[in-house]
Write a structure and sequence with these properties.
Elements (H helix, E strand, L loop, with lengths): L6 E6 L4 H7 L22 H13 L10 E8 L2 E15 L2 E13 L9 H20 L4 E9 L3 H9 L3 E5 L4 E9 L1
Parallel strand pairs: 4-5
Antiparallel strand pairs: 1-2, 2-3, 3-4, 5-7, 6-7
């Protein structure tokens, strides 16, 4: 898939060594600030540092079931500008079965910051579309898309709220689960 500004979207597995190597240099946050003496200080956005470490350390993490974990990468001129790690399963509630599409982690390259969130919005839309497609392929009527966001990450909270997600629960003081149920 490609959007108008030359960004190509590709799905890769946790077996794609080239893609995982590319994540080693992926930067979705600024460096930790240092004191005048050179000591590393607390990062101003620790959730960004955590996500960057997640992608660099694990890439596309270990799935409980083979083939359920996929990594979506957006590249411009060969450089990763966005990444999302996802896990897909089937769940059931009182209304029947549905695709359960968990967004494990999402990150936007620092080079793409300050552009009105267009790439982040596009990334979330691609993920929602993929969840609906998975439901169609499985003959299921619905797809639940959800993920966890640090409550202090206001841009992400505003983005998912604006894109139709609802706050489902507070996991902890800082961690929120946001979700949306999509019809097929």
């Amino acid at each position: 898939m490609t959007i108008e500004d030359g960004i190509g979207w590709t799905w890769v597995s946790n077996q794609d060594k080239e893609a995982l190597r590319g994540l080693q240099s992926f930067q979705c946050t600024t460096d930790r600030p240092k004191s005048p003496g050179g000591r590393a200080l607390r990062h101003p956005k620790p959730w960004e540092l955590e996500v960057q470490s997640y992608f660099r350390d694990r890439g596309c993490g270990r799935a409980k079931k083979r083939g359920t974990r996929r990594l979506l990468l957006a590249r411009r001129s060969g450089v990763i500008v966005a990444a999302a790690d996802t896990e897909v399963s089937i769940s059931k509630d009182g209304d029947g079965s549905y695709v359960n599409f968990f967004i494990c982690a999402v990150a936007i390259n620092v080079s793409e910051r300050g552009k009105g969130g267009r790439l982040a919005r596009e990334l979330v839309q691609v993920l929602k579309d993929c969840a609906v497609q998975k439901a169609r392929e499985g003959g299921l009527p619905r797809a639940k898309v959800y993920g966890r966001i640090d409550a202090n990450n206001e841009p992400s909270v505003h983005l998912v709220d604006d894109m139709g997600f609802e706050l489902e629960q507070m996991e902890s003081v800082h961690l929120q689960t946001w979700s949306t149920m999509l019809g097929v």
